[in-house]
TrEMBL record:
Taxonomic source organism: Mesorhizobium robiniae
Keyword Repressor on entry: no
Residues spanning the membrane: 25-45, 80-111, 123-141, 147-167, 379-395, 401-417, 429-447, 453-471, 476-492, 504-526
InterPro entries hit by this protein: PHBA_efflux_AaeB/fusaric-R (IPR006726)
Broad class of where this protein is predominantly found: membrane
Name used for this protein in its record: Membrane protein YccC
This protein's UniProt keywords: Cell membrane, Membrane, Transmembrane, Transmembrane helix, Transport
Keyword Nucleotide-binding: no
One Pfam family in the UniProt entry: FUSC
Membrane association type: Multi-pass membrane protein
Localization per Swiss-Prot or TrEMBL: Cell membrane
Length: 688
């Protein structure tokens, strides 16, 4: 019953057939209302371009209040930075248009560079700072005395839209980030329980694969929500760390469940009771809708299961390789129970956050991965594209080409760091093209005949409400946002509307041409291969593991997990829609976290006085060989050597001693060998 319902839910999710929910309708009506309020206020303040106030509402529109505040805050910072840059470049180069556009193109390139090195929402603010300077600076050419007025007007319009969007999202039936994160985390826990139940009982492989992808996608969404929600309320600062660590524990539990499924040993007498208890627990957890109201009983049961799994000397009979295999599976089962317990505790920490953080800070031995190669490529591409189109404009003297220059700057900068910039830009083009006939009918036919704000609202609400509903759906958010903002841009609502199709079609044509040119730039100028980007991240992950093997100082477990899952988060948006090959990459990256944690176990054992010198030397030799394989092993070379060495060391260590420390060392070696065996290409240099 549960499994059938899960399959139907997954099918609906991946087909995009989920109907709008009550919260989606609230979001849509709230967004449209905020836009109308912003436009009405812009009319009252007699702003030059009142449509920008309403457009800003749709640009920053997010279902969660914290996301609106975060995106609005960084949009404001980016607008201010861009306005200051426009004033500076126009003051210095305003007498020469060629120098002006060159300076603006360089500024756009620098902002794109910074944006590519940052994450949302900071990255959005950096990109905005680039093209805002172009939007303000180009119209001020020849009239440098007007640039300050244009900058002030632009900032006023943006601030008005942000204020309206922020106030309505926070005051009118708000959907708070903390509540949204807790709700999504609950769904993730129940999905994890369903996945584990299927993995332990031999469930349908296709359903398990879909659920695996869903869990990873939801973990990515949780990470993004955490980043956006920091500005919602001061109290969320105490919840940020629990969210980050809980995401890591969620993925660790997912990896452990997958490993138990892939390396099942149903006839093992020691593992059967633990596996049975785990299967019963996750089955009950997935079957009860209100199971997470009180996590204490589940935590108690998981503690008992983990303790039983760790009692390896008493639970495992016999010697040799079979015993090591049993100990290894029991260790993975204990890791799963412990990770799931920590996820439940993370849920409790979010529901009842601590008053302050008391954790100590210590710099880890690893470094945060930033793709400088991709960032410089994006910067050069955005600057070059803007400069080339500007040169065409200056050479041909086509008046409408100024809009084309601006759109090329916007698209080539805004979508540069997306996993698939061509697809993102194409979605923006489709939304823009779809908005054109609606804007013509409303702005050129209806409103000139029936002027006034009341008629305006009557005409646009039936159009913008469905657009806002689509924005609430992650599947259509890109196209729907482009439709909404360009519908308002083409409409160009003023208090006195007139029929004038010539400028309307000329301006809209320049916008569409600009987007198409930007898409052409993504395709032809320094084209990005996402697999090259993936390869750089995977190489960084392998180097992290090699550093763990060889570095003199051993980092804390939390430090390694934090940085390792940062790598995984960078891979997620690149891999989500690729299919089976993407699943292999994500599976390998999560397995790499498990390998790193086992390396830390070995490093700590290596330094323990309870471990014999002979065993410590074996650990040292193995870690050196593993580091060599990670740094220099080729995907075409067989990796049986390192796997065989790990298993031989594990068997020898287990045969020399029955002590718990020795058996845990043997289990760590076997877990590392199993991960490399499951994902051989991932752990080889230039693999995948």
């Amino acid at each position: 019953m549960i499994w059938d319902r899960l399959r139907s839910d997954l099918a609906a999710r991946f087909a995009g057939l989920t109907p709008p929910t009550r919260s989606d309708w609230i979001f849509a009506l709230r967004t449209v209302s905020a836009g109308l309020i912003a436009l009405l206020a812009a009319y009252a303040l007699k702003l030059d371009h009142p449509q920008w106030a309403m457009m800003t509402v749709f640009i920053v529109a997010q279902p969660v209040a914290g996301m609106v505040l975060a995106k609005g805050f960084y949009r404001l910072l980016g607008t201010l930075a861009g306005a200051l840059a426009a004033i500076g470049t126009t003051t210095v180069f305003g007498a020469n248009l060629w120098l002006l556009v060159t300076a603006l193109a360089v500024w756009i390139g620098l902002c794109t560079l910074v944006s590519s090195l940052l994450r949302n929402p900071e990255a959005y603010g950096a990109a905005l700072a680039g093209y805002t300077a172009m939007i303000i600076g180009l119209p001020a050419f020849g009239q440098p005395h007007l640039v300050v007025d244009l900058a002030v007007a632009r900032c006023a319009e943006i601030v008005l839209g942000i204020v309206c969007a922020a106030l309505t999202s926070r005051l009118i039936l708000p959907k708070l980030a903390a509540d949204a994160i807790i709700g999504r985390l609950k769904r993730c826990i129940l999905d994890l329980a369903a996945y584990a139940g299927g993995a332990f009982s031999g469930g349908d492989a296709a359903t398990l694969a879909n659920l695996h992808r869903k869990l990873i996608a939801d973990a990515q969404t949780l990470s993004e929500m955490r980043a956006y929600a920091r500005l919602e309320a001061p109290s969320f600062a105490t919840r940020a760390y629990p969210v980050r660590r809980t995401i890591g524990q969620l993925l660790s539990a997912l990896s452990a469940a997958r490993a138990l499924h892939a390396h099942a040993a149903p006839k093992n007498a020691a593992l059967i009771p633990v596996r049975t208890e785990l299967q019963a627990l996750v089955g009950e957890l997935a079957a009860k809708p209100d199971a997470l109201k009180d996590t204490a009983p589940w935590v108690t049961r998981l503690d008992a299961i983990a303790d039983r799994a760790r009692q390896t000397p008493d639970m495992v009979a016999g010697r040799g390789d079979d015993r090591v295999g049993a100990v290894t599976r029991l260790t993975i089962a204990a890791d799963f129970a412990e990770a799931l317990k920590q996820v439940l505790r993370g849920l409790d920490a979010l529901r009842a956050p601590a008053s302050r953080r008391t954790r100590e800070r210590r710099h880890p031995a690893l470094v945060v991965h930033r793709d400088y190669h991709a960032a410089w490529r994006n910067a050069v591409r955005a600057a070059l594209a803007t400069l080339l189109v500007a040169a065409f404009w200056l050479t041909t003297k086509w008046s409408e080409a100024a809009g084309t220059v601006i759109l090329v700057a916007v698209v080539s900068s805004l979508f540069a760091a997306r996993p698939d910039p061509v697809q993102s830009a194409w979605g923006f083009f489709k939304g823009t093209l779809l908005a054109l006939p609606f804007a013509f009918l409303v702005g050129q036919v209806a409103l000139p005949a029936l002027p006034g704000f009341g008629w305006f609202a009557l005409f646009v609400v039936p159009i913008l409400v469905p657009a806002a509903l689509a924005i609430a759906n992650p599947r259509y958010v890109g196209v729907a946002t482009a439709f909404a903002i360009n519908f308002l841009a083409f409409l160009n609502p003023h208090q006195a509307m007139s029929y004038d199709p010539g400028p309307f079609f000329a301006g809209s044509a320049s916008v569409l041409v600009g987007i198409l040119l930007a898409i052409g730039v993504f395709v032809a100028v320094l084209p990005a291969d996402p697999w090259v980007t993936v390869g750089r991240i995977l190489r960084a992950m392998r180097e992290d593991l090699a550093r763990l093997c060889l570095h003199q100082r051993v980092p804390r477990r939390e430090a390694f997990e934090s940085l390792a899952y940062d790598r995984v988060n960078q891979l997620m948006p690149l891999m989500q829609r690729i299919g089976k090959k993407g699943d292999a990459v994500l599976g390998g990256s999560i397995a790499a976290v498990t390998v790193g944690l086992e390396i830390l176990q070995l490093r700590n054992a290596q330094q323990s006085s309870a471990v014999p010198a002979e065993t410590a030397l074996s650990i040292t030799n193995f870690l050196r060989e593993l580091a060599r394989e990670l740094l220099f092993g080729q995907p075409g070379e067989p990796q049986t050597a390192i796997i065989t060495v790990a298993r031989q060391y594990a068997t020898a260590i287990a045969e020399r001693s029955d002590a718990t420390e020795m058996l845990q060392i043997a289990a760590s070696l076997r877990i590392i060998a199993g991960a490399i065996e499951d994902f051989p290409a991932f752990f080889a240099k230039n693999g995948l």
